[in-house]
Input
Amino acid sequence: MADSRRSIELQPNDPYVNAYHAVILSFNGQAKLAIPFARRALRLDPLVPRSPYLNILGMVYFHAGEFVQAQDAFDRNVSVEGHTIRSFELTLRRRMRASEGTNKQRRFLSP
Output
């Protein structure tokens, strides 16, 4: 951890250094302290879509026991045009159920 702290001292505005310092803190039982570093990494490199920083932020929140924030970070990382993969999955399941019912009706009504 000393090397990680030293990296932050030498390169405080490097998103990778902040992100991986957050990972090291989190894996060493200091997830609450890791949150600001993970958030900072994301702020320092905002143009990276579906960034690994969001996954790291989600992992850090998860280790800190902040599950709602963790889920939000993971959802933001897999969003597509404002819709999360989960919402696509739920929509797909509803459509499959609806078409399944229609197909059953068609089979029942067909000769």
Q: What stands out?
A: The domain at 2-78 is CATH 1.25.40.10 (Serine Threonine Protein Phosphatase 5, Tetratricopeptide repeat). The two ends are 73 Å apart (CA to CA).
